[in-house]
């Protein structure tokens, strides 16, 4: 059984962007703990730091200051961090990512798209249940279709399957329904909820869509790179 402990701990993290002489604190001293099995949505105005935060928590970017511990390992502390190859390993082993744009390869079928991560890395035990995964995502009848033959909601579900094929512990989703209408958006919300409840997948979701955010168990509001409210 997996321990029900923290999987990501951020302590007073900052991310400062330099634009010429100007410094922008996109994340400005933020502390947060993500526990295994959480389903958290981040909301807040444009420019409040949602994408920056998700990228930091998912080890796609490095904090300028503060401490970040992922899966018990100190990834970053006071401006010093793990090497790029160590970070790559953590990304591959722990995280799955989905984005607003689906980034499917147009010449590959659904099944082939989902298998693309194996070209780079195959986590032990991953792979046997790809068809099962596609079924779970309602794509069993679409396996041999090309992306152009799918609806937007189906395309995003393919992207979710691809993100899950290596069995990550945490799924990071940045505006995953930004290209979908409201009904399809809530459908994706239900898929994420099901994966969270049935598989224990930890889900971190960024969205402008408050209805979608409500499918999460916790909503955290961001403003000016800080947590403005949580419920
Ligand atoms: N690469 C960068 N260089 C300089 N400034 C950046 C960079 N990326 C983001 N910023 C700035 O950091 C702040 C936070 O940006 P971020 O993209 O995290 O916001 P967001 O909440 O995701 O916004 P949106 O809802 O529009 O996606 C903004 O002021 C933005 O202009
Ligand atoms: Mg963003």
UniProtKB/TrEMBL annotation:
Keywords: ATP-binding, Nucleotide-binding, Transport. Signal peptide: none annotated. This is ABC transporter, ATP-binding protein. PROSITE patterns: ABC_TRANSPORTER_1, ABC_TRANSPORTER_2. Residues 8-230 form the ABC transporter domain. The keyword ATP-binding applies. InterPro entries: AAA+_ATPase (IPR003593), ABC_transporter-like_ATP-bd (IPR003439), ABC_transporter-like_CS (IPR017871), ABC_transpr_LolD-like (IPR015854), MacB-like_ATP-bd (IPR017911), P-loop_NTPase (IPR027417). Coiled coil: none annotated. GO terms for molecular function: ATP binding; ATP hydrolysis activity; transmembrane transporter activity. GO terms for cellular component: membrane protein complex; plasma membrane. Pfam families: ABC_tran (PF00005). It comes from the Bacteria.
């Amino acid at each position: 059984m997996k321990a029900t402990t923290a999987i990501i701990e951020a302590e007073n993290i900052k991310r400062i962007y330099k634009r010429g002489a100007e410094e922008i604190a996109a994340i400005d001293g933020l502390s947060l703990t993500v526990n295994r099995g959480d389903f958290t949505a981040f909301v807040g105005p444009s420019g409040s730091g949602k994408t920056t935060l998700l990228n930091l928590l998912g080890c796609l970017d490095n904090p300028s200051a503060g401490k970040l511990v992922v899966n018990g390992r100190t990834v970053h502390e006071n401006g010093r961090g793990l090497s790029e190859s160590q970070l790559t390993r953590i990304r591959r082993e722990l995280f799955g990512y989905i984005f607003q744009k689906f980034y499917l390869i147009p010449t590959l079928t659904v099944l082939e798209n989902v298998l693309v991560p194996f070209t780079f890395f195959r986590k032990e035990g991953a792979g046997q249940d790809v068809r099962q995964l596609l079924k779970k995502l309602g794509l069993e009848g679409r396996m041999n279709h090309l992306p152009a033959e799918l609806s937007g909601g189906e395309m995003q579900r393919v992207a979710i399957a691809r993100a899950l094929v290596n069995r990550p512990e945490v799924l990071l989703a940045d505006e995953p329904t930004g290209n979908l209408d409201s009904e399809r958006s809530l459908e994706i919300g239900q898929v994420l909820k099901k994966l969270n409840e049935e598989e224990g997948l930890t889900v971190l979701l960024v969205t402008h869509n408050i209805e979608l955010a409500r499918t999460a168990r916790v909503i955290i509001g961001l403003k000016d790179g800080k947590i403005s409210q949580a419920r």
